[in-house]
Amino acid sequence: MTKKSKKQQQQPGGTPATVALTAAGVEFTVHAYEHDPSHPSYGEEAAEAMGVSPDRVFKTLVADVDGELTVAVVPVAGSLDLKALASAVGGKRAAMADPAAAERSSGYVRGGISPLGQRKRLRTVLDASATAHATVCVSAGRRGLEVELAPGDLAKLTDAVVAAVGRA
């Protein structure tokens, strides 16, 4: 992994996510690939393009838990357990958020929502399976751009609760 310098942060292609990582002094690697708009899954496309196992590539989903937007970061190889997400944040009910609300809140477009550098900081839950890996990949804030970092750094920077919220 390469720690990005301030000079690299200011180069074209920087996103709020990479700026936040650089500002925090966290080691990370950026992976860029050509996004195919016809691919049925953003996360699976990223895993294939990077040659990384789908259990190490995590998608960022925004859900509504008892009327409050909440971020869930789960492996692209599975799905989000909404009941487990609600429980992880002390809520009763969870449903997927309206995509427009997720985009407005995060400042990112669907398929490129990063858990890092969001416009409005939301409660975040990182699936516990992330801790089984030395590094995981999440969106860097745009389709075709992923960032690889240690799961502990991801949890720390997002103030995430780590809980089993993913389903295989």
How would you characterize this protein structure?
The structure is a single chain. This protein is α+β, with helices and mostly antiparallel strands and 168 residues long. Helix content is 27%, strand content 28%. It has 6 helices and 10 strands; from the N terminus they run H-H-E-H-E-E-E-H-E-H-E-E-E-H-E-E. The chain has helices at 6-9, 16-24, 42-50, 82-88, 99-106, 151-158, and strands at 29-32, 58-65, 68-75, 79-80, 94-96, 123-127, 136-142, 145-149, 161-163, 166-167. The strands form 3 sheets. The chain has a 5-stranded mixed beta sheet. A 3-stranded antiparallel beta sheet has the order 1-8-7. A two-stranded antiparallel sheet has the order 4-10. A hairpin with a 2-residue loop joins strand 2 (58-65) and strand 3. It is globular. It starts with 5 loop residues before the first helix and ends with a strand.
